TrEMBL record, chains A, B:
Protein name in the entry: Aminotransferase class V-fold PLP-dependent enzyme
Catalytic reaction list: (sulfur carrier)-H + L-cysteine = (sulfur carrier)-SH + L-alanine
Gene3D superfamilies: Aspartate Aminotransferase, domain 1 (3.90.1150.10), TusA-like domain (3.30.110.40), Type I PLP-dependent aspartate aminotransferase-like (Major domain) (3.40.640.10)
UniProt keyword RNA-binding, yes or no: no
PANTHER family, A to Z: CYSTEINE DESULFURASE, CYSTEINE DESULFURYLASE FAMILY MEMBER
Family: Belongs to the class-V pyridoxal-phosphate-dependent aminotransferase family. NifS/IscS subfamily.
Domain UPF0033: 389-413
Keywords: Aminotransferase, Iron, Iron-sulfur, Metal-binding, Pyridoxal phosphate, Transferase
Any one GO MF annotation of this record: transaminase activity
Source taxon at top rank: Bacteria
Length: 458, 458
């Protein structure tokens, strides 16, 4: 098996495993106790905090360990918002943040606060100017990921941090995807991360709050971890997290080069090997190990199953692979094709052979899925000079497949109307038009679902 | 070293260690993913949930894993309160709950709700009648621990649950101290526990919400663990927690008998070996492994250091050993002596030899501390027919030591007034009077600190 989903969770790094084992016998006691076992536990915890702080580039007393990256984000945002409640209750996030950030924003809005989602361009990056424009006098906190988890695009954190600093707004950086590769540059105020993303164990998040940043931890009081992360410290896991962060950092520069070359191969060759592919994300400003592409006329879930059967574990932002039936909010915000979406995120140590085997297997897998899906004949009618395709009740990628089948049936300048009640069509029909050089006219409400109007341009 | 503080954290059970190791390689992937590694992780998680649910005596879909016992309590109380917000915002807790419960109550009060603390008797138990009396028409939730963490007293959970059920109020049981020994009986509605208390790893709590109990998880939305415990699942730890719970349960009946005999020895022999000792907690309805006593004229922190040097790790509810400078809220609620407090909580496998050695070492350790503390001469004066002892600025147990020194200087029927600004004196002076057969008259505010009035009765 080739595991190509490191952005979801990385396999445990050997150093993490070793450190975890070594500290299981020394780190189980309560570090708040004064007896021998407690003192040993405290020493381990302090050393882990120092190592993690050094890797982050902060003071040890600015860093606490939480039970997960999600907890770090939830607690960090809630505490920073509460610390600046007098300033206002406005939060800024980018449109492509991790769900833990977006759900925190929703929670704020549900409580009467407000939030602004800064849009991204087609590569998935925010513009510094747009981010700066969203800063208001009542902005309590701004959030920006260091790099995107679905497409790998690196965000202009240092520049946005500078814009925030200029108006006195703290910036929280979700560094979950990048911390294993290096420190987050710039004058950020808060930072969060998650150990299992860099090969540490599950159950450890980092929350860093710079000295001088107003912060009021929310929820019931608890004395542990400076009052910022309630509950008994998970010291063996924390030790393993810190040790593995140090280890991956030592190898980071070299491994980044190697993985970047491998993902570059995928970026360059997939469009040549597979027709109708859109490689998404910034080609240059990106994480070393992530490459994401979408395949026209392909059902993401079926493609994932095919790849799994061929021995490849990848993930997808296609709507049909999630429980929500809507495409990934990241792809949506980027305005790119979501159907047949595949994210390859290489773990450290991924081999050239595995990548080559993936490139060998992919075309057949895509072709197989397309063949299965392409058999049906679209149901069409002519209405008000448009050819109408009734794709109601059909799920992604069928509406786009049917559109592609019938576009040749109208003359250049003629229009096709696709009726669809699948949420993915809203994203995928315009994306198809862009890829195919056709003109997307717009959408309107139909008696059932939505009517998407396309004018044949070529 | 003899580790006698299992109630704080138990050493990792061999089965937990073994299960953790075995699942490190299989349980690191995201159980929400459909590929092979994800499916393996999901299988492990599901199996762990089933095993834990069986041990608790609930359905698997009623149980979620949280990042700690404290998190389980915080989330359980917040969710249950929110689920019944229409009924009211009144919470009932016993006065001797774990701090995570009491802090949740404080958080509710800070947000405009109300809470009632049900008092306990001198053994640390609530009375079912008093608990039932505290139920109101606006009571959203009631909380009661299964057994006390500081003195081991078992609470009448089944009877209180019945009283709650009769009026439709859900009861949350904090079973942190008892779950390793057996299921919690009775018609409880919610239950919380913490794996490292039974020999499982840190980083795992259990939150059980019975079907039909109104529950609205608070905080930002997260899909994992039925939306009740945000963050990436820590599967190796969860597997280890479930496996070790099963393991300790298998041994529970036999080990309980053995530990009960050992703690009974301590209960019976410490008062004979050490003068001026009060063994606290219920002598019969108690956990097998916990025994707690307080020693007159002893500074708890110094005694702990002496015992640590002699190779025994115990904890204390004395004020001087905590960062808050107030005695344990449990001892305070019981109205028992807090000075020189020692909690012995035997881990599974504690040996008779270790307990005998403890009993051999303790008298000398106590005598040594008493000798160091007893040298000073009290500063006294006579004022309004009372002998006044100025113990201002002196910390526990000095005020009581000075009281004991001067009581013989007044005739029977005469009074001593102790001036003290140490919070522990409020508990320890009345407790001393009770132990010594003297009459505690009461306290009044003094220009500095508090004046405690004692009448010599014998």
């Amino acid at each position: 098996m080739s595991y190509f989903d490191a952005a979801s969770s990385a396999p445990l790094h050997p150093v993490a495993r070793q450190a975890l084992l070594a500290s299981l016998d020394e780190g189980w006691a309560d570090p708040a106790r004064l007896y021998r076992e407690g003192r040993k536990a405290r020493l381990l915890l302090d050393a882990a905090r120092e190592a993690a702080a050094e890797a982050v580039g902060c003071r040890p007393d600015e860093l606490v360990f939480t039970g997960s990256g999600t907890r770090a984000v939830h607690s960090g945002i809630a505490g920073a918002l509460a610390g600046r409640r007098r300033v206002g209750r406005h939060l800024i996030v980018s449109a492509v943040e991790h769900s833990s950030v977006l759900h925190s924003a929703e929670a704020l809005v549900a409580e009467g606060g407000s939030s602004t989602e800064v849009p991204v361009d087609r590569t998935g990056a925010v513009s510094v100017a747009a981010y700066a424009d969203s800063l208001r006098s009542d902005t309590a906190l701004a959030c920006l990921q260091s790099a995107n988890h679905e497409v790998g695009t690196v965000q202009p954190v240092a520049e946005v941090a500078e814009a925030c600093r200029a108006v006195g707004v703290p910036l929280l950086v979700d560094a979950a995807q990048s911390l294993g590769w290096g420190q987050v540059e710039g004058a950020w105020s808060l930072l969060t991360a998650s150990a299992h993303k860099w090969g540490g164990p599950a159950g450890v998040g980092l929350l860093v709050v710079r000295k001088g940043v107003r912060f009021a931890a929310q929820g019931p009081v608890d004395e542990r971890e400076s009052g910022r992360a309630p509950g008994f410290e998970n010291i063996p896991a924390v030790v393993a997290a810190a040790a593995s962060l140090r280890a991956v950092r030592t190898e980071a520069a070299q491994e980044a080069l190697r993985l970047r070359e491998l993902t570059e191969r995928i970026r360059a060759r997939v469009p040549k090997l597979v027709p109708g592919v859109d490689v998404v994300g910034d080609p240059v400003r990106r994480l070393p190990g992530i490459v994401t592409f979408s395949c026209l006329y392909v059902d993401g879930e079926t493609l994932l199953h095919e790849l799994d059967r061929a021995g490849f574990s990848v993930s997808s932002g296609s709507s049909c692979t999630s429980s929500t039936l809507t495409p990934s909010h990241v792809l949506k915000a980027m305005g790119v094709l979501s159907e047949g979406n595949v994210r390859v995120s290489l773990p450290r140590g991924a081999t050239e052979e595995d990548v080559e085997r993936f490139l060998a297997v992919l075309p057949g897998a895509v072709a197989g899925v397309r063949e299965k899906l392409g058999a049906q004949t679209p149901v069409t009618a002519v209405e008000e000079e448009s050819l109408v395709v009734d794709a109601l009740g059909k799920r992604c990628p069928i509406p786009v497949i049917e559109l592609a089948k019938v576009i040749g049936d109208v003359p250049v300048g003629g229009t096709v109307k696709v009726l669809s009640d699948d949420e993915a069509a809203r994203l995928d029909i315009p994306a198809w038009c862009e890829m195919r050089g056709q003109e997307y006219v717009g959408e309107e409400r139909a008696p059932k679902g939505t009517a998407y109007l396309i004018r044949r341009a070529t």
